[in-house]
Records
---
Amino acid sequence: GDSVTQMEGPVTLSEEAFLTINCTYTATGYPSLFWYVQYPGEGLQLLLKATKADDKGSNKGFEATYRKETTSFHLEKGSVQVSDSAVYFCALSDLQRGGKLIFGQGTELSVKP
Amino acid sequence: GAVVSQHPSWVICKSGTSVKIECRSLDFQATTMFWYRQFPKQSLMLMATSNEGSKATYEQGVEKDKFLINHASLTLSTLTVTSAHPEDSSFYICSASSGTYTEAFFGQGTRLTVV
């Protein structure tokens, strides 16, 4: 079945450092790919998405490119802030066909001042 | 984006009682709603998928008689944890989608503690 694998955390960075969180997937068909962020004690917020190969999703300085050839959707940010500390989830879905979201295990990011 | 409201945000109940959690799509019609469970520092585990007007589809290992899901309208789904036990304590999150969107929208989650 479909699955998502993320790099394990926690990831600890200093403020203004470069961030990469790796995400790879296996899927039949052509899923949409997502990054969600979860702050402590809260639900999930969509950070960015890409619906087809070579699409780049971006939001709040974060970027991820849908790479079909490597089945990857790595999350990057050039300069992290303390406020970016959260858990990040990579996910895939074929929602337009009523498909469910399949999540990676989550990567905790801690940014120190 | 669209808004999904989940209520209550936290609840404490006694062992053996039942608890109902509501999930509402405020500004769109949700043809499909999903219920997830999340243990501390873990990922979201899908419990069930519900389509408006039909029975929910439960994931393997989820007791449908214990976790009752109702999706009676296009804007409301409920999850009832029946005869709750301390091991049911968890963070429950709903999400909603429709054919209009290519993403699902999440509620803020409900922290259930069974004492």
Note: Chain B has a mean pLDDT of 91.
---
Amino acid sequence: GESVGLHLPTLSVQEGDNSIINCAYSNSASDYFIWYKQESGKGPQFIIDIRSNMDKRQGQRVTVLLNKTVKHLSLQIAATQPGDSAVYFCAEGGYSTLTFGKGTMLLVSP
Amino acid sequence: EPEVTQTPSHQVTQMGQEVILRCVPISNHLYFYWYRQILGQKVEFLVSFYNNEISEKSEIFDDQFSVERPDGSNFTLKIRSTKLEDSAMYFCASSEAILNYGYTFGSGTRLTVV
């Protein structure tokens, strides 16, 4: 669900499990969506993107699913590794801006 | 792999003082951005910059903020009179094209206003 202030939704998984991180976006007119990973003390790092004319896009170990009907975006990480531990943000692309969601912290236990 | 470089990594300043945050975007990128992230909150857009002028700016980017590309490599964010609520991580980013959202972000400058 939504987070407020310092409290981020947290997903805890075991190494090797598949992870699913969800995001609800607000603007039904958005046509470009991106997932970013942010490790502690670093800037956001691009993971994968998807345009609104697609429902699914796959990368290396990651899949993004887009459900425009309910304005929902998800990121699936296969065979999650400890190095995947980070905060994950979805973002909507505007003309020259990104609007970020509030983030989900993924914790991967060995 | 090309990087966006930000300096300093940490900056502590007195309330009311001016600060300049510096960024070196990736050399062949044409679009430059500043975002900020207050501790524990989401990343927020401040301003985008192209062809030596501001393309878009958010409500956060008021008259206290300015950006400049003083030479061919640096991109700076100036806050004229800092307030306590300006304390945040400030991220610079760059991209090759306006519709290329795969921005490359720098590692950020942590600004603390005391």
Note: Chain B is about 0% helix and 50% strand.
